[in-house]
Amino acid sequence: MSAQKCIIYATISRKDVVLCEETLGTSDKKSTGNFAQITQSLLPKFPPQAKHNFHYDNKYDFSVLNQRGITYVAMTDRDMPLRIVFNFLTEMADNFSATYGDRAKTAQAFAMSEFSTTISQLMTKWNDPNADSATRVQQKLDAVKGVMIDNIDKIIDRGEKLDIIVDKTDALADTADLFRSDAQKLKCEMLKQKLKLYGIFAAIVIIIILIIVISNTNKK
């Protein structure tokens, strides 16, 4: 089973002015790194379209959501499902907009740092594999598929054993046929021997009778 993909780092900025940021909890080994520096160096290069995603360094993905002049960025493990990432970014944007409104348009760098607590909570929520309904359905399908594959393997294994039994039965049947054939041949041979003995015995009796008859004839 492949390792779970995670949202590692998130930031909210106005152009290249970072308003707040958050990194995945320090108990996670992936939380150590220069994620903030990398993201801040890329901020001026992000395209202006509403949604954007690209790979970075063959290990990470950057997903970007632009709304009303504010840029919401998530740095994730490579190939994390975009549906989950943009659900995270959308909820983060909705919460941030509801909390600060137009103040974000003129705020100084890191003026909304307290919002990092909300980002952390959203990270925990969307990094949970049970948070996304499609993911839950996929997990159930994977579980069912695993059971089906296991059952098929058992059926195949049982089929192989049945084939072995059938082969042994066929071999026994062939042996029985051979034994029956040999028995028939032996029976014929014994019958021939028996008839031969009867013939010899009959010949001896006839010879004895002839000797007796001839002997009696000579006496007369």
UniProtKB/TrEMBL annotation:
InterPro entries, per database record: Longin-like_dom_sf, Longin_dom, Synaptobrevin-like, Synaptobrevin-like_transport, V_SNARE_CC
Keyword Transport: yes
Transmembrane stretches, start-end: 195-214
Predominant location category: membrane
SMART domains registered for this protein in UniProt: Longin
Domain V-SNARE coiled-coil homology: 133-193
Listed CDD domains: Longin, R-SNARE
Domain of life: Eukaryota
GO cellular component terms, A-Z: cytoplasm; endomembrane system; membrane
Membrane-topology annotation of the record: Single-pass type IV membrane protein
Annotated GO biological process: protein transport; vesicle-mediated transport
Domain named Longin: residues: 11-119
Stored Pfam families: Longin, Synaptobrevin
UniProt entry tagged with the keyword Protein transport: yes
Family under the similarity heading: Belongs to the synaptobrevin family.
PANTHER family given in the database record: SNARE PROTEINS, VESICLE-ASSOCIATED MEMBRANE PROTEIN 9
Protein name: Vesicle-associated membrane protein
